[in-house]
Specification:
The structure is a single chain. This protein is of the alpha/beta class. It contains 6 helices and 9 strands. The protein has one domain: 3-Layer(aba) Sandwich (Rossmann fold), CATH 3.40.50.880. The chain has a 9-stranded mixed sheet. The longest helix has 16 residues. The protein starts with a strand and ends with a helix. The model has no long low-confidence stretch (mean pLDDT about 90).
């Protein structure tokens, strides 16, 4: 069973996303893992709550809103799970940034978080997303990502991958607990893995694969294969 943590800022946001892309992603996770996928909003998550289900993997979604729209205390349970679980974890986009924060900050002391944009647009540089984050560079669409450290997550894949991007923020600092796995010219920390536990996070969206750009599908298949092997499947 897969736990899919949806980082929706409100119940209304959750219902809207559940009826659109999140549900489609849930179906893809089920297809690739061969297991049911329980989709829940993040404040529900605690180590105790998760222990009542036979989860074999955890996926943390991205989010299209700023950190200032989230209530820090509602993240505590999820952060406690990240620090205690032995399950394979995959944080995606905003979930990637959340994983990084959980292991680089004392999250019970830091009560406010702020966005970390990649960079401002340079003079004369086109603003392709004026309605999203005007004045900031946005990495979007299928973009090349280079594997810089071999890992089972990228088994059977080439060194340069093409993966869906949709972000203007990034992880600025790699925690000593993590190893850098993939990078590109726009964003250095495209993928990372915990050095001692199967906790992964990626800036790109592997779940947004297509027939012509299937690398994300293979990444998810590799992740679920590792989860199955750990569970003794």
């Amino acid at each position: 069973m897969v736990l899919y943590v949806v980082m929706a800022k409100s119940k209304e946001d959750y219902l809207e996303r559940a009826s659109q892309s999140a549900f489609e992603h849930k179906l893809r996770f089920e297809q690739l893992s061969g297991s049911p996928c329980l989709m829940v909003r993040y404040p529900w998550i605690t180590p105790e709550a998760a222990s009542h289900y036979p989860f074999r993997a955890v996926i943390i979604s991205g989010f299209g809103h700023g950190w200032d729209e989230m209530e820090m205390t509602e993240l505590y349970g999820l952060y406690d799970l990240l620090h205690s679980t032995e399950l394979p974890v995959l944080g995606i986009c905003g979930g990637h940034q959340l994983v990084a924060h959980a292991f680089t900050e004392d999250f019970r002391v830091v009560q406010t978080l702020h966005d970390e944009p990649m960079r401002r647009l340079q003079p004369g540089e086109a603003d392709w997303e004026p309605d999203y984050q005007p004045g900031y560079f946005v990495e979007k669409g299928m973009q090349p990502v280079r594997v810089v450290h071999p890992d089972p997550l990228f088994a059977g894949l080439p060194e340069v991958l093409y993966l869906r991007q949709a972000h203007y923020c990034e992880v600025k600092q790699l925690s000593p607990d993590f190893r850098l796995l993939a990078s590109n010219d726009h964003c250095r920390l495209q993928a990372m893995r915990h050095r001692h536990r199967p906790i992964y996070s990626v800036q790109f969206h592997p779940e947004a694969y297509t027939e012509y750009y299937p690398h994300g599908r293979e990444i998810l298949s590799n992740f679920f294969q590792m989860a199955g092997e750990q569970a003794g499947a």
